UniProtKB/TrEMBL annotation:
Example of a GO biological process term: phosphorelay signal transduction system
Domain Response regulatory: 15-131
PANTHER family with a match to the protein in the record: RESPONSE REGULATORY DOMAIN-CONTAINING PROTEIN, STRESS RESPONSE REGULATOR PROTEIN 1
Organism: Thalassotalea marina
List of residues that carry 4-aspartylphosphate: 64
Annotated signal sequence range: none
Protein name, as recorded: Response regulatory domain-containing protein
Keywords assigned: Phosphoprotein
Length: 137
């Protein structure tokens, strides 16, 4: 499959891999994404996320930065190595000057972040921007 076909397929795919080790956030964000018309594969376990990542193609991987077993940085670094074309975004309560957030935002596959607590309008805007970026490639 050509890179152009790959990009078009990802942009038309509405499946999101959602990773957050806090079940209450996972459930709430999954509900917001579903309300926006996306299909969601939610997981609170980074190791399970790695397995899901291997099995399917996603429009977006949306990952918490700070998790107890494996940081978002380490997980997205692995994803960048395995499938560098996969678009990823972070969710975090951290401020932009936080060193781990700055380091993670420099990964090639990370195309943005959204601040927690997540607002419906901000999530909708982030997803629209990601879709626009994918279609313009």
């Amino acid at each position: 499959m050509t890179e152009t076909a790959n990009v078009a397929q990802r942009a038309s795919n509405n499946l999101i891999l959602l990773i957050d080790d806090q079940p209450i956030f996972l459930k709430a964000i999954a509900a917001l994404l579903e309300e926006l018309g996306y299909r969601v594969t939610p997981t609170s376990c980074p190791m399970e996320a790695i397995q899901f990542f291997k099995e399917k193609s996603y429009f977006l991987v949306l990952c918490d930065l700070y998790m107890s077993s494996l940081s978002g940085y380490k997980l997205l670094t692995r994803f960048n190595h395995d499938k560098p074309e996969q678009v990823c975004c972070l969710m975090t309560g951290a401020e932009l000057d936080e060193p781990l957030l700055k380091k993670t935002l420099r990964l090639n596959n990370v195309k943005g972040y959204i601040k927690k607590p997540i607002k419906f309008e901000e999530l909708d805007r982030l997803l629209a921007n990601i879709k626009k970026q994918q279609l313009s490639v």
